[in-house]
Design goal:
Layout (H helix, E strand, L loop, with lengths): L19 E3 L6 E3 L4 E8 L3 H10 L9 E8 L1 H6 L18 H11 L1
Antiparallel strand pairs: 1-2, 3-4
């Protein structure tokens, strides 16, 4: 039977079973290796109140702590939120080793 993707949409190489994670978008359970993961770094406060906090701070050059969040989405939520986009049949064969390679590919087209 023909397959759509070489990896069958998973990142499970040589493992029989993977644990389940909860999607941050809809809450459904999916395999950990199938989840689309993004690591985001955000400020704990928004930019409008950041200046007020820096002015009120006693210590000079105090850096506010950041919020580190690992987001995990199912495929349908990731497509809906435009985190990933469906690729054509020929582009599905291209395998990327890093996110920078993907970004370089989009920069060349523009």
């Amino acid at each position: 039977m023909t397959v759509k993707r070489r990896c069958h949409g998973r990142n499970r190489k040589g493992r029989n079973h993977t644990s389940q994670v909860c999607c941050d978008g809809c809450g459904c359970k999916l395999a950990k290796d199938k989840a689309i993961k993004r690591f985001t770094v955000r400020n704990m406060v928004d930019k409008s109140s950041l200046r007020d906090l820096q002015d009120a701070c006693v210590i000079d050059k105090y850096e506010l702590p950041k919020l580190y969040v690992k987001l995990q989405y199912c495929v349908s939520c990731a497509v809906h939120r435009k985190i990933v986009r469906p690729r054509s049949r020929e582009e599905r064969k291209i395998r990327y080793s890093s996110r920078t390679a993907v970004l370089d590919r989009f920069r060349k087209k523009e």
